[in-house]
Design a protein that fits this description.
The chain has seven domains: 63 residues, no CATH class; 94 residues, Sandwich (Immunoglobulin-like); 95 residues, Immunoglobulins (Immunoglobulin-like, Sandwich), CATH 2.60.40.10; 100 residues, no CATH class; 101 residues, Immunoglobulin-like, CATH 2.60.40; 104 residues, Immunoglobulin-like, CATH 2.60.40.10; 104 residues, Immunoglobulins (Immunoglobulin-like), CATH 2.60.40.10. The protein has two helices and 56 strands. The strands form 14 sheets. Strands 29, 30, 32, 33, 35 and 36 form a six-stranded antiparallel sheet that branches. Strands 1, 2, 4, 5 and 6 form a five-stranded antiparallel sheet that branches. Strands 39, 41, 42, 44 and 45 form a five-stranded antiparallel sheet that branches. It starts with 6 loop residues before the first helix and ends in a 14-residue tail after the last strand.
Length: 705
Amino acid sequence: MGEIATWSAVKTKVGLGKTGNDCPTKAELLALSSTGTGENYVGLELSNASSYGNNECVKLEDIHKVTYKYTFTTRYSSVSFDALGNPSSSNQGFGFISTKQKYWDGVANGSEITVNYVISNKPAWVANHPSAPPWTASENLGLTSRSDSNTLVTQYESGKTFKLTFTQAAASQSWSYGWSVSPTSMSFGATGGTKTFTVTSYKQELRNGHNYGNQIALTYTRANSGSVSGSGTSVTMGNNTSTSTRSGTVTLTQAETGKKLTVSCSQSAGYKSYSEITASGGAVTDIPASGGTRSSFSTMPSYSQTWGWNGSTTGGGTITSGASISYGTAVSAGSLGTTVKSRTRVGTLTGTLSLNGKTKSVSVPVYQAANEFTGYTYGSWIVSLMASSYTIDNTGGSVTLYPSASRPRYANYTSGSNTRDGSDSATPSLSTNGTSGFSLSGTTLRASENTSTSSRSIRVFANYDGAADYVDITQGGASVSYNYYFYWNGAGASESIHHAASGDTLSKTFISYKKKIINGSETSDTYDVGVNLSGTPSWSSVTVSGETVSSKASENTEESSRSATVTVTQRESGKKLTLDITQGGASVSYNYYFYWNGAGASESIHHAASGDTLSKTFISYKKKIINGSETSDTYDVGVNLSGTPSWSSVTVSGETVSSKASENTEESSRSATVTVTQRESGKKLTLDITQNAATIIYEYVFNLV
C-alpha cells in the first residue's frame, strides 16, 4: 500500500501546491493551476484518478509532475519555383515537423501531439500556404530571378521559430514576328500603270511563352527585279513594247529576321497597231491562145503599212513585205482553136492585200495572146495485137494472132489545137516470153497438152518503132481429183477397245491415204491424210499419233462399267471410223472393323440391385477396297441387338450401348448376354449384363391376444 501524499511531498515532487503535513484531496490537487508555458510548463495530473473520491486523499505515487518537450523543424528550408510559379519537382514543400511530447515525472507519456504553427512575413508573390504541398507562386514576368528569406514560421505554445527562403527563376524572353504583304501578286495591262501593296511588319515580346507589352513596328528593305520599278509600297510597270508577257518581282526583307516576302508582278504582252495599206502597180501574164484562166498576179503590186505599239499606228516602222493576197473572180478565156486572132483584153483581175488585219484591193487588166498556124506534126505509132482466142484447152491446140501498127498526122496552131490529116500503117514483129509448152510460128501460137494441175500462160509481144502491145494466152491445168482410202487395220469401219477397271493404255491402227486422179486416170502416187478425233470421254485420254489411236483410261472406281464412242474423221474427205471404248466396273469390297472400345470382342456391365444405367462404347466402321486397294475413306456401320433381358432396357445410340436395369427385388442375382451384331458384316460382339441380388430383411411380429 502506497504512501498517502502530504502537501510538502507534493511540493517537492511536482513543484506546485503548499507546504504542510496535511494530505491534499483529489479535488484540491486537480484545482491547482499549472505554471509556465511551452517547455517551461509545469502541471499536475493524477493516475488512477477515477479510483479516488473528490474529498479523498491521494497516494503520492499517483501524483505526477507534467512537462512537455517541443519539436519544431523543417525538412527543407527553401522552395524554388520556375518562372510560371510551379515548384521544382524535387522540392514541393518544406516538410514541417511540429509536435510536443508529454512527460510524467520526466518520463515520456503517450504519443507525440501535433502543435499548430503560424507563417508570417510571406512575400506577396508566394501564394497562401495550401493545406498540402505543392507551394505555388505568382508568375514572374521580370527578366531577373527573385528571392525572399524573411518568411517566419512560429510554433504555437513553444514560440520556437525558423525562417524560410523562397526563390523564383527569371522569366524566359522570346520574340514572335509578324510579317505579311497583301496582295502577293499583281497583274498589269500592256500599257502598264502603278499599283500599291500593304505591308505588316512587327515584333512581339513573349515572356514565359505569352505576349508581353505592345507590338513593336519593324522596318524592312525593298528590292525590285525584272520589269518593275517604284519605291515604298508602289509598283510601276511601263508600256510593254514586246509581243511577249513580262514579269517582275518586288522582294521585301524584314529587319532583324531577314525573312523575305515577294510580290509577283505580271504584264500582258504588248500588241502592235497597224495603219491602212497603200498599194499600186501589179501585172498578169497573158492567157495563151490555147485558153486558160488567170487567178493571180504575175507581178505583185508594191505596198506599205506603218505601225506602233498598243493602239498607236506610228513610231514602230513601215512594213513593205509579208502581206497575203486573195483574189476575186478569176478571168478565163477559151481556146482559139484554129482561128487566127491578135492579142485581145478579156477582163480585169482584182487582188486584195491582207496585212495585220488591214486590206487593200488592186485591179489589173488581163489579155489573151494571139493565135497563129505553126505547121504539121505526126502522132506516135500505135501497135495493136489481138488473138482469135485467148485460151487453149488443156489437151493442147492453137490460136491465130492479128498484129497491126498506125500513126496520125496533124496540122498545129499556137493555141495548141490541131487538125488530123491522114495516117501511116506498118506491120509489127511478134515475140514471146518463152513459156515452156508453147511455140510461135508466124502469126500462129501452138500449145502442147498440159499435164500439170496448174494452168500456164504465155505473153506474146507486138513491136514497131518503139511502140508495143501484148496479149496473154492461157492454157488450163489438168483436171485433178483424188480417191480417198480410210479403214481400220482390220479393214472395217469400226473397232473396239476394252480397258481393265484399274486403267491401262490400249491402241488401234488405221489406214488413211489418197491417190491422185489426173484427167480421169488414177495415178500410183499416194498421200497421207490426217484425221480428227471427236467424242473422247473425260475418263480416258484419247490421242492420235501417225496412224495409231491410243486410249489411256484412268482407274474406274465405280462399280458400274462405262463406255464411249470416239469418231475418227478423215480431214479432207470427211469419211469416218468409229472406236467403241469400254471399261469394266471397279472391283469393290469392304474391310469391316468391329470391336469394343477396349479393343476386345466381349465386355460386361454389372448393375447394383437397386437398378441403375450403365453403358459401353464400341467401334463400328468399314473401309472401301477398290480394285484390291483399301482406301482411306471410312463409313459408319449400324448394329442390331439381340438377347436383351426383360429386366433391363438395352438400347444403342450411335456407338454406345446403354443398359437401364430395373430394381432386383429377388434374393438371387440375375444375368443375360446381349449380342451386338454389325449389320452388313454379321460380325458379333457380346455384352454380359449382371445384377446383384436384393438385400431382404424380415420384420417379425408376434402378438398375444
